[in-house]
Amino acid sequence: MDMRVKKTKRAIREAFMGLLAEKALSDITVKELCESAEVSKPAFYYHYGNTHDVLLEIEREVIDGIAQSIAGADEVDLCSAAFLRSFGRSVFESPLSSALRDGNLRSEFMGMLSSSLSGRFAGGHSARELNRQAFAVTFAFVGLLGMMERLGPKGYEEAIPELCGLMRAVVGTADL
Description:
mainly alpha, 0% strand
């Protein structure tokens, strides 16, 4: 990728995350984003269709990073303290941490993340069983992200033992 493209996209994304920490996604305009990033509107529209596209790109990268962090393991226990701790670090250290902290995480992001993770744990089962497992994992991760949003990094870390039990109760019903 051309260095100018990288620099422009990085400026837009950093400005976007700064604005998202201050206000809701629906309140961020392309004009103020361009001003904050110090890029022209044509440069912005060359890379993105709207502000939602910037967030979507960031969300996809975060999801890919989380999925890659568990992809190498032959078997992952979604309910273990080690997994929940690693998952928490991945989310809280991501560019979306300010959105998480400020209650701006979108249900669309949570759905994409949980779908990505449920696909990781669905091998070798019938379509009906996959749907049941995907539902359980999606339900568990949406709930987990909601807890992360409410507790913050320190509270989340302290709650991991209880969260393990909650995850086991939900995901355990899926016989993963």
